[in-house]
Design goal:
Nucleoside transporter/FeoB GTPase Gate domain-containing protein, Gate_dom, ferrous iron transmembrane transporter activity, mainly alpha, about 260 residues, FeoB_GTPase, 2 domains, transmembrane
Length: about 260
């Protein structure tokens, strides 16, 4: 930490005048995209990378998790020393829910059940509006084709039917899945469960270099890659988002099973 502060003070004079050196060192270790984008000296980035690897080897976790644990530990200690609470107020409803959803044994099954519900909402319920849109575009294509003689070829006919309706319609039919997925993610985010889910999966996902939140779009990828890739917007870190996007196409959706059945004897 001190080495990073020293190099930043020497190489990034303007940045160190604007922000505190300790704060800059912490944010660089946490891979904060806003601060990292303002640092242009390779020596600083190399020092940050070396310090991050050193912290991982000692604590066995990512620097951002280590920093967060340190903050929460300090806050918890300060609260215990300064706040006096009655027995009735010690355990709020939120605290009791946290005990259940982040429990070492119950946390993962609850998470998998909720992910199953999100999956069902996105693809089972989303099938109905998808079929309605497919029927609409099929009807629109036939209606426009009716203006020309049967078997006649025309560039305008091809543009409207094959280009506009076929092309746009092929994308728009996925809109219900995307909207339902983002609705489910918004509910999980607003309820506060997304942070708990990331906490539950974080240790598992970090072993393959991903954030805990990456599990949700990867799971959705078994249904369809398009809404899954859209779902990576919940990841704040650009590197984690890009890595997850590259992995999602490897998830086998239902449409690929037919191809596998033909290829595999």
């Amino acid at each position: 930490m001190v080495r990073i502060e020293t190099i930043v003070a020497d190489k990034e004079f303007e940045l160190s005048r604007k922000y505190g050196l300790r704060w800059l060192a912490i944010k660089l270790l946490e891979q904060d995209s806003d601060i990292t984008s303002k640092v242009h000296h390779k020596e600083i980035l190399d020092a940050v990378g070396a310090s991050a690897e050193h912290l991982k080897s000692i604590f066995g976790d990512e620097p951002e998790i280590i920093m967060a644990n340190g903050r929460y530990g300090f806050i918890s200690g300060a609260c215990q020393e300064t706040i006096k609470s009655t027995v009735a107020s010690r355990h709020s409803t939120s605290d009791m829910i946290d005990v259940i959803v982040t429990n070492r044994i119950l946390g993962l099954p609850i998470f998998l059940i909720l992910m199953y519900l999100v999956f069902q909402l996105t693809f089972t319920i989303g099938t109905y509006p998808m079929s309605w849109l497919e029927q609409f575009f099929d009807w629109a294509g036939k209606a426009i084709a009716g203006f020309w003689l049967v078997g006649s070829e025309n560039w305008l006919k091809s543009l409207l039917i094959d280009g506009a309706i076929g092309g746009v319609g092929g994308v728009v039919v996925f809109l219900p899945n995307i909207l339902l997925l983002f609705l489910a993610i918004a509910i999980l985010e607003d309820s506060g469960y997304m942070a708990r889910a990331a906490f539950i999966m974080d240790s598992i996902m970090h072993k393959i270099g991903l954030h805990g939140k990456s599990f949700i779009p990867m799971l959705i990828g078994f249904g369809c890659s398009l809404p899954a890739i859209m779902g990576t917007r919940i990841l704040e870190n650009r590197r984690n988002r890009f890595t997850t996007i590259m992995i999602i196409p490897l998830m086998s959706c239902g449409a690929r099973l037919t191809i596998y059945a033909l290829i595999i004897p």
